[in-house]
Amino acid sequence: MNRPAAIRLVMARELTEQLKSKAFQISTAVFVIGILAAMVIPTIVDDSVDRVPVAVTGSGSAEIMLQLSALGSEDEVALGIPVPGSGIRFEPREVSTRTAAVEAVESGAVRLAIVDGREIISMSQPGATGDLVEQLLYSYEVADRFTRSGISSIELLAITTVEPPTITILNDDADESNAVLSYVSSTLLYITIITYGLSVAMSVVNEKSSRVVEIVLSTIRSVDLLAGKVLGVGATGLIQVLAIIGVALVTIVFTENLPIPDTGGVLPLLTVAMWFLLGYTFYAAVYAVIGSTISKIEDLQGVAFPAMVPILIGFFISFSALEGEETLAMEIASFIPFTAPLTMPPRMLLGFAAPWEVLVSVALQVIGIWVVLRFAAKAFSGGLLADRIRLREVFKTS
Which helix (H) or strand (E) holds 74? Predict the structure, then answer.
């Protein structure tokens, strides 16, 4: 059997087994349900309006009741001061005296009471609702004073309406959408490496423990077996990621819960995709080496932990991208093959990395992949037929 055919055969077998596995099906279902819950539930909650009955008495009752009716809507209040929407709908109810207002609050007929536009009565701390009412009363008092000074509501609106300040961005690439995209790419790569890197190692260990590998190696070279496993498990991960992204995009379109950020074209997406492939290939080979050194699944977690450390370090360092800042640790980590897939994409997306830095980082990553793949091939051939082997013994047994 020629090498391409052997690799395709192993890849097809790995892909079929992974897609049929309970772990893949359950994890995909959990991710999909989690995304649906995270996007649909807030939409349902946001659509619900908190109706707050408020008792009003004393001076300015009519104007305050008009203000309350407008609060939470997009209308401008009568005095000319716009009130922002809040998801809260106030239901003003006029009462005759302060005593009646207190009784209404105590009986639970209303949540709040306003007396003479200066006092707010509540059974407990009113929280955000009280803050809105306090803001309204402050605006009412200011507007009323301007009105008594002979300034109309139209004139007041003209006085208080100003142009927003000009914001100059020195780094055009460091926008919010790219910061979010960099965080998403780091998170996605982190989850994929942990999940499917371990899947590569588990696949190797399972074959060793069942001795199936002895039969397989009689017809297929160990290097071709390694390549087929990496590609097969990687294709499984890609299918799951695309399924999750597809569900998320469809949910966004139908719920309009989250705007799809403008990532500035195809280049940022290609950046993420390139480093996704580089990072997965590098760590898939690393985990293949790990899997070839043991023969029991229960030993995998302890042996695989050292490989997780640089992934965690790179992941946490990439968090600084959310602040639109570049740290020295992030700059150094972007040139180390173990952490570059998690830290160089944020630097590129935010415009911190110079072109020569990107080229050097990619070159180092490719060299790192080549070295690890060669080492993985020797570890694969030297460790597959052994129950347990130390890494320093890999080359001796190959």
Answer: none
